[in-house]
Amino acid sequence: MGQVIGSLQDKLQGRQWKERQVRKITDKAFDHFKDESGKSEEEGLTFEDVYIAVLEIYNDINKYLPGPHYDPPSKEKLLIMMEEYDFDVNKRLDREEFAEFIRKLTADSLCHISLKLVITFVAAPLVALMAKRATEQVPRVGPVVQRVPNSVYASIIALGVVLAQKSGDDCV
Q: What are phi and psi of 124, to 5 degrees?
């Protein structure tokens, strides 16, 4: 019971919970590359390690999160960012530097995905229900619309928004 309440408190705290989840992901990626290369914790990740980690992270974003395909930044941009986050100027990123680097790198993509989810699953159903109420007064259409349950009507509109977003993503 205590674990359930603790988990609920974490989710209600929102931003702190999200930050911990992002940190778990960056720690896992850091440990994977550190162990694979046989380097010690203090040595950090080289540019090649960071580049491969970024490719894998963007692959996971594209695989598991809705929305368009997000291309990872170019090697040149990654090199410039790596220099910016290499605070001890040793051409390697330690755990803290790597976590900040990944947080900054993925912030725009994750913000765009969150916005699309809010539009699809919150705004679209609300607009659908308002449109349903407005069309109930239209002759011949109104009685048909009144018979459709609100949940079904909102789901159909939300599905339409998802399909419209997908077709818009294909055109870009």
A: -60, -45
Residues 6+ apart with CB under 8 A from 22: 99, 102, 103
Residue 30 half-sphere exposure toward CB, CA atoms < 13 A: 23
* Cβ atoms of 26 and 34 closer than 8 Å: no
**Domains of the chain, residue spans:** 21-171
| Cα-based torsion angle of the residue sequence 6, 7, 13, 14 in order, rounded to the nearest 10 degrees | 170
| pTM tops 0.70 | no
**Residue pLDDT, tens place only, 28-37:** 888 887 777 6
Helices then strands, each counted (H, E), the chain: 8, 0
